[in-house]
Amino acid sequence: AKAAGRGRYRFYEPSMHNNAANRQMLENDLRGAMERDELSVVFQPIFRAAGEDVVGFEALVRWQHPKRGLVSPTEFIPLAEECGLIGVIGEWVMVEALQAVHSWPASFRLAINLSPVQFNDPRLVEMVASALAAARVDPSRLELEITEGVFLTDCDTTDATFTKLKELGVRLVLDDFGTGYSSLGYLKKAPFDKIKIDRSFVRGAGVDESRNAAIIRAIVTLAESLGMDTVAEGIETHDDLQLMRSLGVSEVQGYLFGKPLPMSEAMSLAHRRMAD
Ligand code: C2E
Ligand code: CA
Ligand code: CA
Ligand code: CA
């Protein structure tokens, strides 16, 4: 394939991986990715740990690059954050994912990841509010997943944004809990409704299982005493699920139930599991 217009189809050498030139090319490609319809949203079901009810779906963005194939969000989201594209990408994901909610049972919620960088945008709350209004989705059905990274910058604005989001009526989830620092202080400060226990505590490679269990038990106790729900991500085996149930985790999510899929497939998978 050949260059078809400015910054379009580039060739990626493995040796260029991670260097500045490669980054620059990827950034150029990312700028046009939405226009070229290369981004999509996939959905992963979240289940109530006790029983098998679906409580909702987490939306996860995908980038189908014309040359590189699927580029992981762990690669292009940080890039988007650095080059100022996260705002438009985040808004696109929000609008796109909210469209799916109409075909869902009324009890299902939608979880969307927000980048800490989006909190620097003074119009964030307005963006969320108008996306909800345009899709005619009740704010209580939207969960915003936010990592501890949000607390590393500009505390006053962040606090105000959290307050406004709560006033809007959306639910706030502290994502990747336990992987950052000073998590406990953040729990005190920000009005989270739920804690998402990071995958590393569910399947800490090479770590004694009883230590993981002790940590998860402590997180559940803490969450309960603060009136928050818990969800564990990265549930891959029946043993994982049994353990989460025994530790009192309220919701579960992971490859055991299904990988993130395009909406129609995610929905039929969810229905099939509930029917089992
Ligand atoms: P995350 O928010 O922690 O999302 C969970 C990641 O774990 C997803 O990877 C998901 O596909 C994967 N996963 C789910 N179940 C399992 C499992 O059982 N085992 C394993 N090993 N992995 C599982 P994905 O989709 O590649 O996303 C990676 C990260 O990229 C996300 O981590 C999130 O931080 C970010 N991301 C994805 N979509 C968005 C988005 O729309 N906006 C923003 N700001 N960030 C996003
Ligand atoms: Ca997440
Ligand atoms: Ca995670
Ligand atoms: Ca994450």
From TrEMBL:
Q: What range(s) does the EAL domain occupy?
A: 23-274
**Name recorded for this polypeptide:** Diguanylate cyclase
The answer to keyword Membrane applying to this record is yes
Record lineage: Bacteria, Pseudomonadati, Pseudomonadota, Alphaproteobacteria, Sphingomonadales
The range of the complete sequence contained here reads: 496 to 771 of 884
Tell me the domain of life. Answer: Bacteria
Arranged from A to Z, the UniProt key words for this protein are: Membrane, Transmembrane, Transmembrane helix
